[in-house]
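Reviewers of the previous submission asked for a worked example of the structure-prediction workflow described in the proposal, so we include one complete record here. The input consisted solely of the amino acid sequence. No template or homolog information was supplied to the procedure at any stage.
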Amino acid sequence: MQRFRSLLALVVGGLLAAPALAAPAPSMPDLLTIQHQWAHISYELPKKSQGAAFASLEQQAAALVSRQPHQAPPLIWQAIVLSSDAGATGGLGALSKVKHAKKLLEQAKRINPKALDGSIYTTLGSLYYQVPGWPIGFGSNDKARQSLKKALEIDPNGIDPNYFYGDFLFRQGHPQQALIYLHRALNAPARPQRLLADKGRREQIRQLIAKIGQSH
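From that input alone, the workflow returned the following structure tokens.
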């Protein structure tokens, strides 16, 4: 049981950094609203308030998917909100939420694997290296690497694929390689509709770069 709690802590500790992805097309204002609310919860609310806020946002995301079941972007964002809710609330329900998120991402991939600049692969990759492996969860470093590299093929200059691959490399014991991708993420083009998300992500990047500098 203690080992289970330790592994589950990877989910709780890591998924609060779920990807803040590319803005939707202008025809999807509801999705943009969800993105903005996600950034507000993630970067402006105190942690003790995030769980309830994500739970409410989760319902909005599910409602959007029900209205647009054949569109990949709503599925991606429902997965992101589920993962963030899992990270904020923890407990035994966290793994069921991230497993549901994985299914949503796989469904989105069947519809349009390149939706939102390859965000499916960025999100899957981040889940694969942060969720415990078998027999508790579906985590896999090999699958994480494959997914994150695929994300970089689609969006080589994006802030999120570079950040998460850098974080993955650091956790795998390759800090110097990680720095290449982290600096690339830090210098990624700004997303005008995602200013708060970019600000929060860049702060995470700077913190990780500083951590690498202090330990090496």
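Residues 2-152 form a domain with the Serine Threonine Protein Phosphatase 5, Tetratricopeptide repeat fold (CATH 1.25.40). We consider this example representative of the routine output the project will generate in years two and three.
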